[in-house]
Amino acid sequence: MAANADAIEQVQSIGEQYKYGFVTDIDVDLAPKGLNEDIVRLISEKKGEPAWMLEWRLKAYRHWLTMEEPEWQKVKFDKIDYQDSYYYAAPKLGDKPKSLDEVDPKLLETYAKLGIPLKEQEVLAGVEGAPKVAVDAVFDSVSVATTYKAKLEEIGVIFCSISEAVRDHPELVQKYLGSVVPYADNYYATLNSAVFTDGSFVYIPKGVRCPMELSTYFRINQENTGQFERTLIIADEGAHVSYLEGCTAPMRDEHQLHAAVVELVTLDDAEIKYSTVQNWYPGDEEGRGGIYNFVTKRGACRGRNSKISWTQVETGSAITWKYPSCILQGDNSVGEFYSVAITNNAQQADTGTKMIHIGKNTSSRIISKGISAGKADQTYRGLVRMQRGANGARNYTQCDSLLIGDQCGAHTVPYIESQNPTAQVEHEATTSRISDDQLFYCRQRGLTDEEAVSLIVNGFCREVLQTLPMEFAVEAQKLVGISLEGSVG
Amino acid sequence: MPDGSGHMQPFLDQALADSASVPGAKVDWLADLRGRGASIYGDRGLPGRRDEYWRYTNLNALGKNDFELANGGPAVDVPALPHRAVAELASYRIVFVNGRLRPDLCVLDDMPDGVLIAGLGDMIAAAPDRLEPVLGQGLDLHEMPLAALNTAFMRDGMVLFVDAGVDVDKPVHLVSITVPGETPLMLQPRHLVVLGDAAKATLIESHIGSDEGAYFNNLVSEISIGEGAELNHYTFQEEGPAAVHIAATALNLAAAATYDGFLLQSGGLIGRVETRAILNGSDADCRLDGIYLGTGEQVLDTTTYVEHVAAGCRSRQVYKGVLDGKARGVFQGKIHVRPDAQQTDGHQLSRALLLSPRAEIDTRPELEIYADDVKCSHGATAGELDAEALFYLMSRGIPAEAARRILIEAFVGEALSEIRLSQVAEDFSAHVRNWLSANITVNTAD
Fold first, then answer.
1. What phi, psi does B267 have (nearest 5°)?
2. Which segment of A81-90, A242-251, B284-293 scores lowest on mean pLDDT?
3. CA-CA distance, B151 to B40, in Å (whole number)?
4. Given a cut of 80, is residue A128 above it in pLDDT?
5. Among A231, A415, B53, B59, which residue's beta carbon has the most beta carbons within 10 A?
6. pLDDT surpassing 50 at residue A339
7. Alpha carbon distance A250, A220 (integer Å)
8. B361 and A411 in contact by Cβ < 8 A?
9. What's the CA gap between B292 and A455, in Å, rounded?
10. CB-based contact B376 A431, cutoff 8 Å
11. Considering all CA atoms of chain A, what is the largest pairwise distance in Å, rounded to the nearest integer?
12. Is 50 exceeded by the pLDDT of residue A14?
C-alpha cells in the first residue's frame, strides 16, 4: 500500500515545476482587445489578404454570432469572455527576416528552453550541414522562420505559412480550405475561421514522398492572446508526408484559449501521418492559468487506398478538448488514431476521435491510453460510424484508462453506429490502476518507486508511443518520464 | 403544445384533467408526488434528439396519434391468457388488461404469510400509508422525463411486498395485455416491488399486445431489494406491432442484495427498456442481461445505467441483438463508479448481429469512473454472421437457412444461458426459435 501512496504523491507533483514557464520579452504588435467585424477586417488587412479570404472570414464571423457555445462536453470552465482577448499579436520584427540571423536572439533562446532538440535548433539557426528537418516555427501568431523551404520547393513540396499560401497559392487554398472543416462546423472552428492568424500550409504534389519530416512548434507567448492556427495539409495522388506538431507555452495567470483548426486531405494512394506532442502549460494545482486547448482536427481520405494517421501525446493544457477525426471516403482508405493523454492535478481532457466509414473496405484503428492522476478528469469520447455503403469496412477500438490516486476520474463514451452488416466493429475498454503487484515486482528488482511508475506507465502507453516518428518518440518518452519524476527524493 | 423552448408535452393535460378525482387525490403526499411528476415532465417535455439518452430513439410517432388514457378493461372479453407467456409455469398471477387490474383473471390463492400482491389502485384506496415510504422514492424523475409523466398519472399497477426473510414459493407472474380499441390507447401502469431483508422472489413480466392497433404503454417499475435479499426478474416484451413500449425500471440494491434480470424484447414498433440500478450497499450483485430481436421497421432500445455507490459491488451485463429488415437496435449502457465505490467489479458486453443491408445498430457503452481500485470494462461488437462458420456448416450438408438459424441461436444462446429458471429459459428459447423460423429465410441470406 505504501508503494502506491508514494506513487500517488509522486504523480501528484507532476507539473509542480513547469519547466517551460517563462516569458520572452520582445515587442509585440497588438490589435485592440475584443472581437468585431473591424477586427476581422484588420486581421485580413494586416495579412494583405485577397477579398475572397476576407469574405470567407466575415461569413464565418457572422455565423459565429448566431451560434451557442457547446455544453455537452465533460469539462468545466468559467465562461470565456471573447471580448476580453486579443485576436492579433505579431512579434515586431519589422520586415520579414531575410535570413535566420535576423531572428531575434531571444526567440532562439526560447526555443532552446523549450527543449527543441539541438539539431533542430541548428536548423533554426541555419547551421550548415544541419539535419533535414524542416521547421515552420509559429511564435504566437505569425510564422517567423521557415527553413528548408527552398530545398522542398525543388521537388515541388509547398511548406509555408497559411498566410503566404493565401497569397502565393490561392487556387489550392480556395479549393481545400474549409472543405474538411466547413466554416460553420462548430463554435470554435467557426471562431477560428473568422480570426485565424497563422498556421502551416503543406502541399505534396503527385507521387512525391516528402524527403524529410515537416514540423511546427506552436508557442503561445503574449498574455491574453488567443491563438487561432489554421493548418491545411494536402497530399496529392501517391504523395506521402509525415508532419510533426509540438506545443509548449510559458506560464501565465489567465486562461488562454487555443482554438486551432487542422484540415488534412489525401487523394488516391496518398498518406499523411500527423503527430502531435502537446505540452502546454496545464495551470497550477487548482488549474489556474492553464491553456484551453479546443481544437478541431479532421482529415478526409478522399482518394482510394489513402491513409491518414493521427498520433497524439497530450500531457499539457488545463483543458484539452479535441477529436482528431478521419472521414474515410475513398475505397480501401485507412484511418488511424493513436493517443496518450496524461492528466494530473486539476487538468481536464475530453478527447477521442471520429471514424466515419463511407467507402468500401475502409478500415480504422483506434488505440487510446488515458492516464489520470491527482484530481484530474479524463474522458475518451469517440464515434465509429459505418455508413450504408461501407461494405467490408472494419474497425477496431481499444481504450484503456489508468487511474493513479482515488480522486481522479476516467470516463469512456464511445458511440458505435453501424448501418452495414458486412462491416465489422469491435470496441473494448478497460479501466485499471497500477497494481501493487506490479510495483512490488519492479522494486524487488531494485527500481525506485519513481522508475517503477515511469516504467509501468511507459509500458502502458508503449503501443502508441512507438507509432511516433523517431524525432518525437524520444521526446515523448522523456515527457512521460518527466511528468512522473521530480517528486520522490 | 410546444412551450417557449420548443419542447412538446403531449398527454400532460390528460394527467391534470382529473387530478382532483383520481384515487388518492385527497392523500396529500400522493397528490404532491403526482404534481411533481407533472411539473418535471412539463419542464422537460417529450425527449427529443437533443436529449443525449434519446438521440437514437425518435418518439415522433407519439405526436402523430391522439393517445387517450385507457379507462377500464376493454368491452371485448379477453379469451384465454396468451400461451406465449410462460403458460405452463405454476405461479401467482396478476393480470392487467389495458393497464387496469382484472381480478377475475388473477391467480393469487394461498399466498404464504408475508407476501402481498395487489393492485396499486386498490392499495391507494385501502392502505396508502404502506405506499408512502416507498412509492416514488427510488426514482430520479429529472433523469427520466417519461417516468415523470407516468408519475403524474399513477392509477394502477402491481404492488409486490415481500417481508423480511420470506422466500416466495412460486414465481410471481405479472401479465399485461393490451387490446387496442377504436382510438389509440395510452397506458401508464406503475409497479412497485419491495423485498425485505433476506427475502427471495422471482418475478416474471409479460407485456403482450393483442393486435395491430397503435397504443402507447409507458410503464414504470420501482424495485427495492433489501439486505441479502434476492430477486430474479424476467421480462418478456412482445407488444403489438404498432405499439410504443417505454419501460423504466428503477432498482435499488441494499448490501449483499442480488438482482438477476433478463429482458427479451421483440415486440412493438418502438420498444425502449431503460434500467437504472443503484448499488447502495456493499457487496451487492447486479446482473442485467438480454436479447432483442428486431425486424421490419422496429426500433428496439435497451438502455442501462448502473451506479456503484458502495464498495465491493459486482455488476454484469450481456446483451445480444439480432436485427433484420430495416430494424434498428439501440444499446446504451453506462457504468458509473462513485468515489467511494472501491473494489468495484463492473463488466458489460453488447453484441449485435446485422442480418440485412438495411438494419442498423447504434451502441454507446459508457464508463464513468471516480475510484481507482476498480475493475471495469466493456466490449461492443457489430457485424454479420461469420462466413467461415456458415461455410463449415454448409459443407457438412446443412442448408444455408438452417445453418444461419443455428448460428444465430448459438449467438443469442450466450445470453439465454444466464437465465436460472429453466422453464423461463426454455420458453424464451422457444420464442427465439419461432422468431427465427418466421423471419430468417433464405432470401435474407443475400
1. -105, 175
2. A242-251
3. 10
4. no
5. A231
6. yes
7. 7
8. no
9. 45
10. yes
11. 69
12. no
Nearest to B241 by CA among B192, B295, B309: B295
Cell of A104: 531575434
Residues of chain A positioned with their CB less than 8 A from the CB of B299: none
Whole-complex ipTM:
0.87
- Decide if B375 and A426 are in contact by the 8 Å CB cutoff: no
**Chain A stretch 122-181, residues whose beta carbon is closer than 8 A to a beta carbon of chain B:** none
Could B382 and A409 be called an inter-chain contact, meaning their C-beta atoms sit closer than 8 Å? Answer: no
Interval B194-239: pLDDT, tens: 999 999 999 999 999 877 888 999 999 999 999 999 999 999 999 9
Identify the sign of the CA torsion A183, A189, A194, A198: negative
Give the end-to-end CA distance of chain A in Å, rounded to a whole number: 19
Q: Which residues on chain B are in Cβ contact (under 8 Å) with A401?
A: 367, 369
Cα distances from B84 to residues A313, A370, B96, in angstroms, run: 56, 48, 16
Using the Cβ of A419 and the Cβ atoms of chain B, whether some distance falls under 8 Å is answered with yes
Nearest to B56 by CA among B445, B321, B277: B321
Please report the pLDDT score of residue A16 as a whole number: 43
- pLDDT for A13: 44
The tens digit of pLDDT for each residue in A92-101 reads: 444 434 444 5
List of residues 6+ apart from A306 with CB closer than 8 A: A235, A266, A267, A268, A269, A270, A271, A330, A333, A334
In angstroms, the CA A134 to CA A213 distance is 7
How far is residue A342's CA from residue A401's CA, in Å, rounded to a whole number?
10
Where helices occur in A178-286 by DSSP H, the ranges are 187-195
pTM to 2 decimal places: 0.85
Give the DSSP per-residue string, A351-413.
Answer: E--EEEE-STT-EEEEEEEEEEETT-EEEEEEEEEE-TT-TT-EEEEEEEEEEESSS-EEEEE
Please give the Cα distance from B433 to B435 (Å, whole number): 5
Q: Which residue of A has its CA nearest to B368?
A: A411
d(CA A93, CA B156): 79
> Tens digit of pLDDT for each residue in A180-194?
999 999 999 999 999
CB-based contact A421 B355, cutoff 8 Å? yes
- The pLDDT score that the predictor gives to residue A12 is 46
Q: Minimum mean pLDDT among A1-10, A190-199, B272-281: which range?
A: A1-10
pLDDT, greater one: B303 or A35: B303
- In DSSP notation, A455-488 reads HHHHHHHHHHHTTS-HHHHHHHHHHHHHHT-SS-
Q: Give contacts of A 337-396 with B, CB under 8 A.
A: 386, 388
H, E, C per residue of B289-342: EEEEEECCCCEEEEEEEEEECCCCCEEEEEEEEEECCCCEEEEEEEEEECCCCC
Distance of alpha carbon B340 from alpha carbon B312, whole angstroms: 10
The torsion angle over the Cα atoms of residues A269, A274, A275 and A280, rounded to 10 degrees, is -170
Query: Which pLDDT score, from 0 to 100, does residue A9 have?
Result: 54
A475 phi and psi angles, rounded to 5 deg: -60, -40
Grid coordinates standing for B262? 433478463
Please give the pLDDT value at position B86. Answer: 52
Which residues of chain A neighbour B365 with C-beta distances below 8 Å?
Answer: 412, 414, 416, 427, 429
d(CA B232, CA B202): 5
Residues of B in contact with A373 (CB under 8 A): none
Query: Among A208, A198, A206, A209, which Cα is nearest to A232's?
Result: A198
Q: Cell triple for residue A18?
A: 513547469
Beta-carbon separation of B378 and A429 below 8 A: yes
| Residue of B372, B377, B385 for testing the chain A interface, max A β-carbons within 10 Å | B372
Q: Do A420 and B381 touch (CB under 8 A)?
A: no
Supply the pLDDT for residue A146: 52
**Rounded to whole angstroms, how far apart are CA atoms A402 and A341?**
10
B445 has a chain A CB within 8 A of its CB: no
